[in-house]
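Methods — Computational structure assignment.
A single polypeptide chain was analysed. Its primary sequence is given first, followed by the predicted tertiary structure written as structure tokens.
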Amino acid sequence: MAGRQFTGKHALAVFVGAFGVIIAVNMVLAYNAVKTFPGLEVKNSYVASQEFNERLQEQQALGWDIRAEITGGLLVLHITDPTGAPVEVAELRAVVGRATHVKDDFSPSFTFDGIAYSTPAALGKGNWNIRLVAKDHDGTEFAQRVPLYVKG
């Protein structure tokens, strides 16, 4: 029984096919990376870096601790001072979303009940980020990303 010979044409076909698959996968991954990129975080990164240490010291001086949880269909944020007492901020803004894309992002409106801030939220299973900015009554800004894992 005579076997088929592996010729230069066959080698070229294997070579082109293998690299074609690699290039196609890279193109798909690059397209998805660009498509899901939310954009710039700051307008001028140099200016932001110059102010970073000052803002960090002001934020650390507040001594606030942030904890988030989902309970009974509510997204609850606990903001506490160094003694563990609840903090009522002058202003609270937040964006809740996935770490990997902006498709599910939303900006909730929180209500303070004397203990914590809450808002209705139906978050699917998995990792979520709460990017919050809170202002103290003296104008000090507190910015933090609060990770939240939602179980099934």
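Note: The helical segments are 8-36, 45-62.
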